[in-house]
Predict the structure.
Amino acid sequence: MHIHILGICGTFMGGLALLARELGHSVSGSDENVYPPMSTQLEQAGIALQSGFAPDGIPAHTDLVLIGNALSRGNPAVEYVLNRGLRYQSGAQWLAEAVLHQRWVVAVAGTHGKTTTTSLVSWILEYAGLQPGFLIGGVASNFGVSARLGTAPFFVVEADEYDTAFFDKRSKFVHYHPRTVILNNLEFDHADIYPDLAAIETQFHHLLRTVPGEGNVIYPSHDEALQRVIKRGCWTPTETLASDGWHADNIRPTDNSFDVYWQNQKQGRVEWSLLGRHNRDNALAALAAARHCGVPVAQGIEALRQFKGIKRRLELRGEVNGIRVYDDFAHHPTAIATTLAGLRAQVGAARILAVVDPRSATMKMGVHKDTLAPSLAGADAVFLHKPDHLKWDASVPADFGKPWQTYNEVGAIVAAAKAWCRPGDHVLVMSNGGFGGIHEQLLQAFASR
């Protein structure tokens, strides 16, 4: 079978491409925004990419078209598929039917931390010799790819609450029918499709309705939105991140180590490279999920010590003339604040320049405009990308108290960073897109100082 994927360079659809190839299908795809690491991963897999959505980019011998949720009616490729009567599916439906059926699915959902936690669970199961399949919204360094089939029974999937396709407005995760579920946290996001937090809570409740009574739901007890979701109905045993459940103690920020406790019993000590409280919570949830799959907690802790991180999650892209440049996917104020806090704990009093690209639909709409500045308080200076389509005033807040500059062009940000930075500084670039290749431009600029 030949499968053509519309929107193939998205992290989800790109992962499906790898799974389809591993199943023996021939695969091609089309997309507008082509940038690493997904474009590189697809090219290395020998998957042909077509730039743009012209109908002639869909091969004549295509048997099935998978349509990503970024495409809608009016897109020329979508209209071609409908007019020609080609067979099509959403990516989530194909994944459920072709890969997940009759497997033990571990689903990781939540506003923040999905990619890291999915990678952690996958690595713990791998370390335990279980050879899980996985679909991650990023490239985990321990694996070098974002998706693989693995061997039965376990499959770990990053479970997104975003809608499935233009013809299926349910959240993608209701297709997956998981046995083990992690709910990391829940905040308002995706303002382009959800009117408020209550609407997203409803989707999470729909997810809980699909989890069997012999499954397991893991969530932080302090999260008020998730508490409301659970109270609406949960037919599955739960484990919580709480003082009497899974929690960390004897935390030592200097080497990112901490003790793991489950039901007031010490399980062991984690010593690893990831920064911040949010990653400790991710680790605890991953240990709980792996335990439900049969992996002893002590073995899970051993695995965490060898976890190498994920591309685009506080990833050090390079150091030139004493200036370090990091890449991070943060695009929500909570994620921005926690990422900055983690880096600050590591670098102490050194200067941090935060370079922010408000690219997500929710950011563009200005939903987070009042909470963005407080989330950046941990930086010593902020350079904000302000493209023409931004729908709110991104100029410096009156009470911010630190340098805050806005720029329309990536080149202007690079020039300003070159002038501002000095040896010992840390430049944290935060965007959920390619950001015009700014990371390499910054490193080249610092090299020419």
User: Anything to note?
Assistant: The chain has a mean pLDDT of 90. The first strand starts at residue 2 and ends at 6. The chain has 14 helices and 23 strands. Residues 277-292 form the longest helix (16 residues).
